[in-house]
Amino acid sequence: MTTVRPGDPAAPPDHRREAFRLYSTTPDTGRDALWAQLRERHGPVAPVELENGVRAWLLLGYHENLAVLQNQHLFSRDTRRWREVVEGRVDLATARPALSWRPNALYADGSEHTRLRSPIVDALARVDMNATARTVRRIADSLVDSFTASGRADLIAEYASPLPVLVVNSLYGLPDSYGHMLGDLTAIVFGEDARRGEEAVGRIQQFFSDLVARKHRYPGPDLVSWMLEHPAGLKDHEVAHQAALINSASHQPTTHLIGNTMRTLLCDDRIRAAYADARLSVQDLLDHVMWTDTPFQILPARFALQDTRIGGAQVRAGDALLIGFDPAHRDPAVQCGRDVVTGVVSGSRAHLMFGAGPHACPARELARMIASIAVTTLQERLTGLRLAVEPEELRWVPSPFVRGLAALPVAFTPGEPPRPERSRPEAPEPVAEAEELDSPEGDLLGRLLSWWRGRRTQ
Ligand code: HEM
User: 109-293+353-430 in CATH: which number?
Assistant: First the structure.
């Protein structure tokens, strides 16, 4: 049973226990063995190090994870509450994106969180899901068109990574050219080059404040215009930050849900056969991947607001608790049934992949829709799709948080180059406004696009 209760003076001093170094490579025995080993040694909450000397607690138990996600009175989402920050050992300005702080809903608590989140939730609720499904298909088709003739592709760089950004960009009412710029900048932010990452963060901020200025002049049926007219009355810079959050929150999990699902289909014969003859639906396949190959294996973080005892560990006010999606999904206390033929985790959407409690993902239906159309488009368009390397040669993103492939090289029968009618999509991209504004006399956002195009041709 989950135990969360305010400080218990009789509790053992857990800080004396040996902390596992999360930043070191996963042992050869694999992640499952690692979680089992930590569970055996420490119980459902284990001490870990995020970097040399930077301590945190890793939640291994399903119920402990759920309890922390749901209890905002004891556990804050605000990184500024972290003792490492308060005592100056971690600088939020230079911390990795997952552990930084921005004035957006993700890092806010209580009534401030509600104020910042409600425009996001209400704007997402106004999205026309049928029209968006057609847009997702148009974008997926255009990405496939760009590599189909070659018979080879990296499905991460050329497909799964740009797709979510292009879709979200369309929900801002912008033409694809802006989405390609935003995709490049977002990929740099989540990449390994810290200096370029910092510059890209600045450009993205500029992108969203210029976008808000444009939407004041040209409001339309899009997320930013809807957030601007929301009764919460957010200021312009606040709308810009929430719009940036929608982009950053959607990018990595959607990319790696698509990538991990394609890896499963390409590497697991039983699952591929079940999917091919329609015994396994794409939605059940996505749930299986979210249980077994979670795009976020660990989510940072919650911060204890007072001394608390949870799962046998004595947590002090200011301690960081890492949400352990992957270990939680392997918790022996919640083992789910598996289909005897395919090995697919059956009949349960109780995985934690979309979070829980006040910060739970406000876009889970949209995310599932993007991922399912992405997977079915590849299956329909690419004949003879197969891995272009041995499965053991696939490289993972070097991160304790993300569980996703750095690249997914595939081969397939080269297709016909795109026919002209394909470039006239069912769901046209919104070009009229952009053509007017992309001229040299255009607005700041148009000029940012011109700058980016110039950089690309250098
Ligand atoms: C497979 C894809 C996705 C997964 C697995 C996912 C998962 C999550 C999770 C776990 C959280 C909670 C974070 C926390 O508690 O600290 C979250 C928050 C959020 N997600 Fe998603 N997400 C996905 C796609 C998307 C998409 C497509 C959008 C928008 C278009 C989106 C927008 C957001 C936003 C705005 C938040 C912050 C909510 C808040 O803090 O109140 N997500 N997501």
Answer: 1.10.630.10
